[in-house]
Design brief:
Nuclear Transport Factor 2, Chain: A, 6 helices, alpha+beta, 267 residues, six-stranded mixed β-sheet, globular
């Protein structure tokens, strides 16, 4: 074998290793009939419309929210209603450079619900990630809920998070809703199931009493795990067992450095 052939093989091997390394850092996206990425020209048009309205500081942004929409702030406070959300958004003097949808998931076909993770870049070069729930009816796409957080370089791995998720499933399947909530959820946790928002552990313990049924079983299969910064992680996945549907979790580090569930939703 000539030196030239050996050199070509070595170059191809190095390129393959580099590509494999890059793939390890990307969130996994399962594309099948149960959990599919939604590719729509309408979404691209919505992003363009959003960018235009935002930079004009236009009240027309209200057309992209349902009337009872919800915006979650990173301290656990919520803003309810499209008019109040627009007032909050337009109070920011910064302008947007771009909006890109990283992930768009068809969460519930009959209810026309989509989950989205997108990235926005502002004129000060800061990057933010948005986790949003959309409803598409009558050929209109309107936002039900959003959470926006600044992205930062991270050193965190997913090992600790995976252990916490395993503990969630263990306590759920041992039918101990109280211990599950007290151990895995933040004190100001939020739960959204297309009802009025449930706030705090005590109310969530009451909501999750059905988990204490000895026949209840549930497994969580994460499909998208996006580390936003050292304190927040977005997760979208598939439930299986007593409930078969999509879920969203926003994990937040507590004061002890443990990952706790800041936001939980399963529409």
């Amino acid at each position: 074998m000539t030196n030239k052939v050996l050199l070509i093989i070595l170059i191809l091997f190095c390129l393959g290793c580099a590509n494999q390394s890059k793939q390890k850092n990307k969130p996994t996206i399962k594309k099948d009939s149960e959990f599919s990425t939604v590719e729509t020209t309408e979404k691209e048009q919505d992003n363009d419309k959003w960018l235009h309205y935002y930079n004009l500081k236009s009240d027309s942004l209200i057309a992209l929210y349902v009337q009872n929409s919800i915006k979650i702030l990173n301290n656990g406070e919520i803003i309810e209603g499209n008019e109040q959300i627009i007032d909050y958004i337009l109070s920011d003097s910064l302008k947007l450079v771009s909006i890109k949808s990283d992930t768009l998931i068809l969460a519930h076909k009959e209810k026309a619900i989509e989950y989205e993770i997108s990235e926005s870049i502002y004129t000060n070069h800061e990057k933010y990630k948005t986790l949003a729930i959309w409803q598409t009816k009558n050929k209109e796409r309107k936002r039900l809920l959003e959470f926006v957080i600044k992205t930062e370089p991270v050193k965190s791995t997913l090992e600790a998070l995976n252990n916490r998720r395993d503990l969630w499933m263990s306590l759920c399947n041992k039918h101990d809703a109280k211990k599950l909530i007290e151990e895995l959820y933040s004190t100001n946790t939020l739960y959204y199931n297309h009802k009025p928002m449930i706030r705090g552990r005590e109310r969530l313990i009451d909501e999750y009493q059905y988990m204490n049924n000895e026949n209840y079983q549930l497994s969580l299969q994460p499909e998208i795990v996006d580390i936003i910064n050292e304190n927040f992680i977005f997760e979208i996945g598939q439930c299986s067992g007593s409930y078969n549907g999509k879920y969203i979790l926003i994990w937040k580090k507590d004061k002890y450095g443990k990952w706790s569930i800041f936001f939980d939703s399963n529409i």
